[in-house]
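Today's session is about reading a structure prediction critically. Students often jump straight to the picture, but the first step is always the sequence itself: look for stretches that repeat, for charged clusters, for runs of hydrophobic residues. Only then move on to the predicted structure, which in these notes is written as discrete structure tokens rather than atom positions. Here is the chain we will use throughout the hour.
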Amino acid sequence: MGECMKAHVRIQGNEMVDCLVKKAATGNIGEIMYDKIPRETIITEGKENGLTKWQEQWTSSTKGEVSKLFFPYIKERMKSMIPISAEFTAMVTGHGLTRSYLHRFNFIPNSTCPCRIKQEQTINHIILNCTQLGNERRILRNATVQTGDTWPPTIEQLTRKHLKTFMKFVRSIDFSAL
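Below is the predicted structure for this chain, in token form.
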């Protein structure tokens, strides 16, 4: 049992469980200790442990590469209230609406954006380069720079620090014209 305890060091609830298990195994139960931890502490620790495990899974997953750029930290994402739309979801997941995505599933013959640059139409291209979105991008850029940030911001900053402006940008895009 000594090897198992190393993982529980300095975690209040786990150390207490280990102590009770030892006492039960030796027949020396002694004082009941379960009522020594406040209920809120147990709830808080449970939530924190759950978020930690979720973050580990999120970080190590090979899925959701685009979403991880927008939302690398689960705890930060949980703090923000984001009004979801189909366009916003497509933008932050990379699923649907872009020529890159549609071409990958053979819905269209090529992934090239019809703008003057002639690059693959990815989320990054739409946000940073597409010449058909010059006016929309200018509004997004100006709002970003007015907050003291540089252009271009990181993808994460678009949803963390510039969410309202970024959502306006996404709503302003006519994906059928791209």
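Discussion point for the tutorial: The chain has two domains: 2-60, 65-177.
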